[in-house]
Specification:
Blueprint lengths: L1 H4 L7 E3 L5 E3 L31 H14 L3 H25 L8 E3 L4 E3 L5 E10 L11 H13 L8 H4 L7 E9 L9 E8 L9 E8 L9 E8 L1 E4 L2 E13 L12 E6 L6 H15 L9 E3 L4 E5 L8 H9 L2 E3 L6 E5 L4 E4 L4 E2 L2 E5 L2 E5 L9 E3 L9 H10 L4 H13 L3 E2 L1 E4 L1
Parallel strand pairs: 16-23, 20-21
Antiparallel strand pairs: 1-2, 3-15, 4-12, 5-6, 5-8, 6-7, 7-11, 8-9, 9-11, 10-11, 12-14, 13-14, 16-17, 18-22, 19-20
Helix pairs in contact: 2-3
């Protein structure tokens, strides 16, 4: 104790302006009179501040000082302060104690989407005019027929001999026009960017899309026109002259609304990274635990498979399914633990993998290399993967061994694919 509190073992009595005798840690004079607020000011003769070697000792020392004073107000306030300090430090100890990290919660809107809320592609065939002799030419009969139809609709019909009358039409081209409606849908009058691709023209540079009707993605004999597209074309790149885009060149003439709860039911679809029977059932259980009370404690959700969860819209929300859906998507579950996976970006040669991805015993021959993973690894001439630390070797060790001998990234990607095709990659392989 002396080492912690200072030198010596003498009693210490500290006189305060309020004439209250406050004892030091080893006893002292007593005085039963109450003190003023000035009593709390430190004195030059006060005992040295203890060295903090642990919060438990600090609590004991504080409680000791509070109990050794003869000042009634000082004693009560000191004990209250010591008790508050004990609670605070106990909470901090639990908060920072290793191994007690609370599992993270995730909202359903972050791991799934609503069925029916997907992108929608509008499409149509159109004509691009104003080309500098790089159009389809008079030999392209579909282009000539489309041009003749457009001229007829504009009050300038063409005779029966189309090829002869339109033989000089070299500045027009037949193109495919597409526009993407976002998952949130679109309303009449909204404008979207559209994309134009040539069918046989050599270049669309300087061209302008003639007014083109766009229909839904499903072909039919009598398609409904949803939007109209037109405008000047901006090429995607100088190296690609046959495709381009028109910024906000598509105008909707009908609403495109995405269904929310057809037939009074909502279907949630888990993202690919979270798909699984266990996760789907956990989502259904969480929805029932959180929202079943508004359905007379009857279950609302059930897992259909490893991806889809069907949720019944309760009667009280039948006329307001959007409100109910917003509550469903805010339900939280413990963040699912994703299984081991390997993500490969083929274009850049980037490989992203977790340290827990394992591979089974396998021998891979690639070009002038032979890679062996298993108990017999280590034969001269082989690139060995040590498996002694685990029942199965880790893919991380294989990649590190290949990098050590300077194997190109594209070869490493091919080796990982070969191991996966053999069924020896114990994890999901995601190619992007």
């Amino acid at each position: 104790m002396a080492g912690l509190l200072g030198k010596g073992n003498k009693r210490a009595v500290v006189k305060h302006p309020g004439q209250c005798a406050v004892t030091g840690p080893f006893g002292g004079k007593r005085n039963a009179r109450k003190c003023s607020v000035q009593c709390c000011r430190p004195s030059r003769n006060s005992p040295p501040v203890p060295t903090l070697r642990g919060w438990k000792f600090l609590m004991k020392y504080t409680w000791h000082l509070a109990g050794r004073t003869d000042c009634i107000e000082h004693r009560k306030s000191g004990k209250r302060w010591a008790f508050s300090l004990a609670i605070l430090l106990s909470v901090l100890t639990v908060a920072v104690e290793p191994g007690r990290v609370a599992p993270a919660a995730v909202k359903l809107r972050n791991i799934c989407r609503v069925a029916g809320q997907e992108d929608l592609t509008l499409q149509g065939l159109g004509l691009v005019t104003g080309l500098k002799g790089t159009g389809d030419g008079p030999s392209a009969l579909p282009t000539i027929r489309a041009l003749a139809t457009a001229m007829e609709l504009m009050g300038n019909p063409v005779g029966t001999n189309l090829s002869a009358e339109l033989r000089d039409a070299k500045n027009v081209a037949l193109v495919v026009v597409t526009a993407r409606v976002p998952p949130t849908g679109a309303r009449r009058g909204d404008r979207l960017s559209c994309y134009v691709s040539a069918i046989s023209a050599k270049s669309l540079a300087g061209g302008r899309l003639f007014l083109t009707p766009l229909t839904g993605p499903i072909p039919s004999r009598n398609p409904m026109v949803v939007a109209l597209a037109e405008g000047p074309i901006t090429l995607d790149s100088p190296d690609n002259l046959t495709s381009g885009r028109i910024f906000e060149g598509c105008r909707l003439i009908h609403d495109v609304a995405m269904p929310v709860a057809p037939e009074g039911r909502i279907t949630l679809l888990l993202h690919n990274n979270y798909a699984g029977f266990h996760v789907a059932q956990e989502v259904a259980n969480a929805i029932n635990a959180e929202l079943a009370i508004i359905n007379n404690n009857q279950p609302l959700a059930r897992a259909l498979d490893q991806v889809a969860i069907e949720v019944l819209v309760p009667a009280v929300y039948r006329d307001d399914p959007v409100n109910f859906l917003s509550q469903v998507l805010e339900v939280e579950i413990i963040e699912p633990q994703l299984g081991p996976a390997v993500v490969i970006h083929e274009r850049s040669g980037t490989i992203v993998l977790g340290g827990e991805v394992e591979i089974g015993p396998v021998v891979v021959t690639h070009k002038n290399m032979v890679i062996e993973a298993g108990p017999n690894a280590g034969i001269p001439g082989f690139a060995a993967v040590d498996s002694r630390q685990s029942q199965n070797p880790r893919l991380k060790g294989l990649v590190e061994a290949l990098n050590a001998v300077r194997v190109p990234p594209e070869d490493i990607v091919d080796i990982i694919k070969a191991i996966d095709r053999q069924g020896k990659l114990y994890g999901r392989l995601i190619i992007e």
